[in-house]
Known about the structure:
Layout: E1 4-13, E2 18-26, E3 29-34, E4 44-47, E5 52-55, E6 57-62, H1 75-84, E7 87-92, H2 103-116, E8 120-126, H3 132-137, E9 143-147, H4 160-168, E10 174-177, H5 181-190, H6 199-202, H7 205-222, E11 226-228, H8 234-242, E12 248-252, H9 254-258, H10 263-268, H11 281-293, E13 298-299, H12 308-311, H13 328-337, H14 343-357, E14 374-384, E15 403-413, E16 416-420, E17 423-424
Parallel strand pairs: 1-4, 1-5, 6-7, 7-8, 8-9, 9-10, 10-11, 11-12, 12-13
Antiparallel strand pairs: 1-2, 2-3, 5-14, 14-15, 15-16, 16-17
Helix pairs in contact: 4-7, 7-8, 8-11
The structure holds (4S)-2,6-dioxohexahydropyrimidine-4-carboxylic acid.
Amino acid sequence: MEKTFLIYGGTVVTPRETIPANILIAGEKIQAILSPEDKPHADETFDATGLTILPGIIDAQVHFRDPGLTYKEDLETGSRAAAAGGVTSFLEMPNTKPATTTAQALADKKKRASEVSYVNYGFFIGATKDNLDVINSVPNVAGIKIFMGSSTGDLLVDTPEALEEIFKNGKRLIAVHAEDEAILKANKEKFRQATLHNHYAIRSPEAALTSTKLAVKLSQKYNRRLHILHLSSKEEVEFLSQNKPWQVTVEATPQHLLLSAPEIYDQKGTLAQMNPPIRTRDHRDALWQALEEGIIDMIATDHAPHTLEEKARPYGEAPSGMPGVETLLPVMLTEVAKGNATLDQIAMWLAERPAIVYSIENRGFLREGYFADLVIVDMNEKRTVKREQIYSRCGWSIWEGQELTGWPVLTMVNGGIVYHRGNFTLGSGKELTFRE
Ligand code: DOR
């Protein structure tokens, strides 16, 4: 007999409605979503009175730096931070050291994750100019990641010919970092004595738009599944509002949706530096509107930890990127508290759509027969983000000093509790299965 677990007394965000309900779990799966009066006997119970239960969050863009850069983060610390943040699955990027561009590097990552990950995991295979066979043959990946413009690490595919070859051959989803390398380079030349405040002019909307347009064009030409990562500009929104065929999906980060220039650079210096950059308010507002209209399908963090020491270097030497996996849900629940979003939207943008976009089997929804990946949150808990309380190895957050409303109390992965009020348990995370 499988072990049973009953979560009762809470409010449940189901795919159809947010309702008072009990959840009966048997083994790894949700057996039934029951009416509040229906309380069958179970081996274990959790009283969720006053709390809200959401599907486990899927952060579909993280950099956990393992192997090779583990002084910033590793699969254990990154996945622990994820668990604390209600993130039950992550998709990890290939710009590690070595980069995940070979079957062996991918197998090594999967093995390591199977040993140390608190939550479910999936990986991208990185495209180079000459690993076409690899990207199309390695088993069970979230997709093929292409850096069309250079960022952290040395992964780059920037010639139209090489890009065309990748789009032409194969069927797998292609996820792009869309910034045009030639424009980035030319802009860097123009701003020889650049300061941080030039960051978003160097990495211009034009660079982002040119690259996004090319990716969409190739996707259309070859009918190829394309996912555009971290959309950053109103120009791209405008373009996609007219040119978003069925096979194209789009993502934004909380940073791009909620922070804006120049204030964030004044306040946070190079901590706020990421690629593509945080831009002015008009871009931020256009992104939020695009999210509401469905031009942007989903939210992911681009969790990109660097140490405070590295970030303290002057502009030009400081690396781009900021962490975010553990604050994703509290940051977005704060938008619910402010009346800017609904719980349904949070479930949709952070769990349901990522599962659909990446064809992740039997996850992303609180639904009978699906894996019991869920997060129980206290929608009323207010907490100010403090450096000492950050779980990510990098030890800082762009949200420090902000009071956030709505925090995870308990995180469950495959029916096992991995996080409960500051305590962690290893052993429940599994490799995600991607339908091809
Ligand atoms: O700011 C960024 N940091 N953008 C990326 O594309 C990569 C990331 C990282 O890995 O540090």
